[in-house]
Amino acid sequence: MSGFTHDELRDFALLYRQTAADLAAAREHRADAQLAAYLNGLLGRAHNVIYAAAPRRPRSILAFYTRTFPQIFRATWRYTAAAAGIFLLGSLLGVAACLADPGFERFLLGGEMMDTIHRREMWTHSIIAVKPLASSAILTNNLSVSFAAFALGITAGVGTTWIMFFNGVLISVVAAACYRVGMGTALWSFVAPHGSLELPAIFIAGGAGLLLGRGLIAPGTLPRREALRLHAAGAVRLVMGIVPLLVIAGVIEGFISPIAISPAVKFVIGGSLLVLLALYLLRAGTQAKTVPHSRIPNSQGAPGHTSPRSFVSR
Length: 314
Known about the structure:
The chain is mostly helical.
């Protein structure tokens, strides 16, 4: 049906409804059993044409990642920025808690991990011995965190906010504990290669959750169900877009981050990946024509040009 013109689609819908009405009338008259059987088969084939899922072509998948996803990110970047801000707030409060009470580190991280840090040992050593398994486990964990940040947007954004805030607190407490024993460089050189992709991906997932939550708490003039559907359309595409980023980050964390090479090399790898990611998100798809796929309400709740939208590339 993708090749139909607007008029052909309208005529097709009209014929479909008329055929359904004729089938209902034919079934009321037993003498028209043969006609009813014919109309039923015709209507069934038409139903399959209308509701069958269009096959995903490699070209459409490529278009999504080279055009659609970056366009959606740019249209909804404020939600990603809000998620990153929540994460940063958690990080700052985590550092403040560690400065006020050094015992907070052991309370949050547990005795086993704190003892490992005090022995100046990186817990990443176990990754080196089982790289493929570790990479798989890391990928699973990253996907779980990201999907949880997105899915908990259905709690009006409260669950998403908590996940972003808590992860900010957690990473700052780990950093503070490592800094106290002189392992700050070792920690950040481990985080830099994969974190340059992993953290932005988690921020985008958090932004998707906040976008989903907005559909619940600020439907505006639209029915809440309709507002949720419109916001969810963009949020789901954001989450789909970060999957390759998380896959790459998981591979890097399993195979590159823990190896014994110069910290400077790891920082260069991380910085280079971050620059490439920024160029991709900010520049990819800028030359492609886009049309709104579903209009997401603006801050007043009505569809508007200043609101984030989900896009489909032509």
